[in-house]
UniProtKB/TrEMBL annotation:
Cross-referenced NCBIfam families: OMP_RagA_SusC, SusC_RagA_signa
Gene Ontology MF, one: siderophore uptake transmembrane transporter activity
GO biological process terms on file: siderophore transmembrane transport
The protein, known as: SusC/RagA family TonB-linked outer membrane protein
InterPro entries: Beta-barrel_TonB_sf (IPR036942), CarboxyPept-like_regulatory (IPR008969), Plug_dom (IPR012910), Plug_dom_sf (IPR037066), TonB-dep_OMP_SusC/RagA (IPR023996), TonB-dep_OMP_SusC/RagA_CS (IPR023997), TonB-dep_rcpt-like (IPR039426)
Transport found in the keyword field: yes
Recorded family membership: Belongs to the TonB-dependent receptor family.
Domain TonB-dependent receptor plug: 119-248
Subcellular location: Cell outer membrane
Organism: Marivirga aurantiaca
Gene3D superfamilies registered for this protein in UniProt: Carboxypeptidase-like, regulatory domain, TonB-dependent receptor, beta-barrel domain, TonB-dependent receptor, plug domain
Signal sequence segment: 1-20
Main location: membrane
Amino acid sequence: MKKQYLLLIILFLIGSFSYAQDRVIEGQVVSAIDGLPLIGATVVKKGSTSGVTTDLDGKFKLDISKPEILVVSFIGFAEKEVAVNPDTSGEITISLEEDITRLNEVVVSGLATSVKRSNLGNAVATVSSEELTGITNQPTLDNALYGKVTGVNITSSSGAPGGGIAMRLRGVTSITGNNQPLFIIDGVYVSNDEIPSGLRNASGANSGNEENASNRIADLAPSDIENIEILKGPSAAAIYGSRANAGVVIITTKRGKRGETQVNLSQDIGFSTIQRKVGIGQRDWTAALVESEFGAGEVARYTEALNGRGLVDYEEEIYGETGLISETRISANGGSENTKFYVGASLRDEEGIIKHTGYKRASIRANIDHQLNDRIKFTTSSNFINSKTQRGFTGNENEGGLSMGYNMAFTRPWANLYPDEFGNYPDNPNAAGNMLLVRDKAINDEDINRYIQGASVDVNLWETDQSFLKFKWNGGFDTYSLETYVYVPEYHQAQRGLQNGFIAVGKNNIFNTNNQGFLVWDNYLGGGSLQLTSQVGYAYITFSRDLVYNQATQLIPGQTTLGQSGTQELDQTLQNVKEFGYFAQQEFNYEDKLIGTLGIRADKSTLNADQNQFYYFPKASLALNLANFDFWNFELMNQLKLRAAYGETGSSAGFGSLFTSFQAVNIGGSPGISVGGLRGSEDLIPETASEFETGIDMTLFDNKLSLEASYYNRNIYDLILQRALQPSTGFGLEVTNLADLQNQGLELALNASPVQNENFIWSSTTNFWFNRSKITRMDVPPFAPAGSGFGLGLGTAFIEEGEPVTQLKGTKDGEVITVGDAEPDFQMSFFNSMNFFKNFDFSFLIHVKQGGNNLNLTTFLTDLAGLTGDLDDQSGIDRISNPNTERFIEDASYMRLREIALYYRLPKSAVNVFNGTIKTVKIGASGRNLWTVSDYTGYDPEVSTKGGAGLSTGLDVNPYPSTKQVYFHLALEF
């Protein structure tokens, strides 16, 4: 018996020894769609940090000493688990299916960590490069997001080429502050400012936000983007602290891939035309009608026009151009095992639908990834942009004679505004300016040179099979010089005898920096069943603005420079902000069944009254993946996840709110200063938002159908407003925290893949969302915020406790009433993508907005002039007979075909004639905003006369009209 025991012990030891010997498992990862190898796929032992990536042939080698579960993943494909053991012989082949539901998509969970979408505790919207630009040419990034993300409301402040977009994530978050999200590109905090040109000083517009300046995110070339992640509320964005009240948009640009160099060249040619005309002056004119409207003296002018040039459709004359659009893009990417690169360049040239307006953007990008050794990796992202924009003169003004739409509203079709044989333009007999002179001779240009530089360093400090400790640093800077130039000739009729010519030159320099450092510890416990990810770090951010504005009037005839003038004015604004924060976050994941996060950020800022006081922003989330538990046996449902999240973010006061203002005085020729009307606050604290979000995610029928549903309740506290003071204080106003605001909403996203076979692939996404707001506290009487309307007589946004922050007030029979609400009842989008016989791609996006009101003051002006096209109809007669504000309120609902495209990929047999030089050829045609159904009578129901900041939606005053565009595409891969 003893010999038998001894033999068993020896055999056990031999087996244990052989079992402990590492065996090399060899395999290849391929796509189940076409069998091609997947380069750079990740193969990791489940429950550990040990793994490899596949080589140029999709192959890998991995040492194992015991039975293991290999987790195989690749971007765009569903994750797969494969069981192996040391006895496995030969090469194994692992096929990955396309990840239609995007459950395996990796998204941001912290400043230095990420998580699979299937494990998220809150809703994070993502937009891929294919979704962003794969259908049609996109002029700007924010334009490209229309209708593609739930919870996002996008409104154009100008249809002019080169931007002018207001983006809101889950409603309005500030009354006087910024409502645009924070944009981060490859780890760099970038500016999305709108910087006015000073045009209002000639046009008589009320404020800088009526100048319809470009917003600077328009500088980024959409073709450079790999994907976008949108953190719509504090529950997701809390880790970004005091810059995240309005949400965060995280942009990742394209990077190199290991393998031979791949070159892509594409050329788009397009055309833009006005989306719709409103028919200014297009009434059924007769001599009798002219006399009844304008008196007997006008009939002679009308008759003279009929006998000469005829009646002029000035809307067609000004807005009737067909703008040519050209965009050329070239990129190359590739790399070795240690170094990968992506370089790209693009040139866009877009003509406007008004002569002498347009947009040119040249962009050059270089992204480098280098693995220095087994432990150190660094990346750089460099982007230079030059853009030139001719904005034209549109929008609101007060008799400055510059806004083409404003003056067109009063110009009768028989007025002759064309130049004579000597090039002299006649005065406009009906308005303060001749639109043709302004179009042909006045200038309103922007010129920008911008450089964005990002970098990151990853250092693996310590690693075992079950844990690793990593240090990560990233940061960079965003700097640009923006020059604006406005010129109005001295012979312009509104200039003569007053300014006698106007020049405004802006020299604006922006320099923003940020850097963050993190320690990340990833640890697997319980045999790999529990994953703990910890991170701590800091963030340091600076913002510097130097805005120089020069203005000259009383010009020497024919001169166009500042020095050739009789009166000059110089103004300079310097702004410097520094912010510093700490953060910590702990994530845990129990077998992809229970996933949770706890985190906190502490920030201080020079914008706060106490610059050394930290404000704290916590976050917490929990996700329960019921379908991953052992008891789950409902085979039709692949995923059922319940989730809940809470977070807080902040927003500091605008620069200068802390300080008492001074104003310049000149007494007896001696310059000095005196106390201004605004008193600074010593107790000002940041606006703070807290959000609770809950939701459910499910997928069914082998991942062919998925639903994501989210409800949120966001409360914004301590809104910063101005309060009137008693005259005895010596001041008129002070800035302080005076109100609270609530936003609640629902977001639904349904993704389906009804058909997936060799000859036909069809995927579809339906989005639905709405938001409801309410002012829950106000320590001041109800008021109309400055710059948010044109008074109660014409209509304005109005802040009132217990009412929506987006309500519009006006008067009826002398009483102040609510006349509308700019907030939509709901929005929907319907996206479909189809592939036929592997060579044809067809896709379209339909966007629906139901409800929401606009104040159509373009019609108000044409009513005043008697030129609105419907004044011969009963609807127009009823409107002008109504003396109350409500006559300008219109329903801004619409259904719009946002995008549609058809592409054809040449078969390999056709491409082979190029002897392998060209790998693929793709041709196609597409369109943007080709079809709109709406009862709205203005140029576009998406309108924002007051620019992108503040309460800007719902006001329509002579905007640059929106356009519809058609493109033809050619793309080559070498």
